[in-house]
Design brief:
Strand order of the largest sheet: 1-22-21-20-19
Helix content: under 10%
Bound molecules: beta-D-glucopyranose, calcium ion
Shape: globular
Radius of gyration: 17 Å
């Protein structure tokens, strides 16, 4: 079994949502519970830390030089230079115990993100779609821990995970309309195997899925519904993955210290760090959020 290497040593409480940014050749990620975003240059491993004020579950780069974030109090634009947040909308104003968790843009630049309770007690999360004009639609309900979004190459399928139920789903996806239908459970993970968390898709259509509680990332073949490969990670709580590097053949992996006992933390001192592993087939780059907001010229 391959083992992932250390990319950046740190003690993130809940490292999540990695995004590779080609223009700066940097990896960005969030520490949800510490309310921070980070970026690290692949060239010199220089770390930048951004105080985020809120629990950011996921974010995506925008066409207007900002990032769009899904946080515990809704969707915002966040200007990394000025540190200014600009509210877009909060579909769960009435649910203060919920926060956004995983999110990603589809090929038309809509931002999809799902919610969970800070301490999950049941299927009280939903999946939302944020359109370029700021309109928010609820697309799915009854989720315990919304996680791991990906789309196949021709945008006919969307994949999604509910970590609370250990289930991996596929939907038929209509790219033009931005709608999902015909949900199927394509895999249910045994509890002893670990919990599926964030994921990324490669250009062969395989899903790389972080396994929380399983010290690994798996390569999953959705056409055969089979695990094809396991990659060991020296941290038990593996949270998410994304592809990057100049050829998109590096898989970056985030991890968490959250939920580990003191014994586990001393056995796995790299918990909370960022790891990387080289893969044979290139991954698919993430899409940007296509905001219809006017780009400020000053
Ligand atoms: C969430 C964590 C959760 C984990 C495992 C992550 O995406 O952010 O809060 O414990 O998934 O299900
Ligand atoms: Ca996740």
């Amino acid at each position: 079994m391959k083992t992932a290497d250390l990319f950046f040593k740190m003690q993130a409480t809940l490292g999540e949502g990695p995004v590779f940014h080609s223009p700066t050749n940097s990896l960005f990620w969030t520490d949800i519970l510490e309310k921070r975003l980070y970026s690290c240059s692949l060239e010199n491993r220089f770390l930048e830390s951004f105080a985020a004020e809120r629990c950011i579950g996921a974010f995506a780069f925008c066409n207007n030089e900002k990032v769009v974030v899904a946080a515990d109090d809704g969707f915002f634009f966040y200007d990394l230079d000025s540190g200014i947040f600009q509210p877009i909308g909060d579909p769960e104003k009435e649910l203060p115990h919920n926060r956004f968790n995983d999110g990603k843009c589809d090929a038309m630049g809509r931002f999809w993100a799902g919610t969970m309770e800070f301490s999950p007690s049941g299927p009280n999360g939903s999946l939302y779609r944020l359109d370029g004009d700021g309109h928010i639609d609820k697309m799915e309900t009854g989720l315990t821990i919304a996680n791991g979004l990906a789309w196949n190459h021709d945008n006919t399928k969307m994949y999604h995970v509910d970590s609370g139920k250990n289930e991996l789903y596929s939907y038929d996806f209509d790219l033009e309309k931005g709608t999902i239908s015909n949900r199927e459970i394509i895999y249910t993970f045994e509890e002893s195997y670990g919990t599926p968390d964030g994921m990324a898709i490669d250009s062969a259509g395989h899903l790389f899925i972080a396994i929380w509680g399983g010290s690994k990332v798996i390569r999953f073949d959705p056409s055969a519904c089979r695990v094809r490969e396991e990659i060991a990670v020296p941290a038990p709580h593996v949270t998410s993955v994304t592809f990057g590097g100049n050829d998109f053949k590096t898989l970056f992996i985030t991890t968490a210290r959250d939920g580990l006992s003191n014994e586990q933390l001393s056995e796995f001192p790299l918990s909370g760090s960022i790891f990387k592993v080289e893969v044979e087939v290139a991954g698919c780059p993430l899409y940007q959020y296509q905001s219809s907001e006017r780009v400020d010229s000053h």
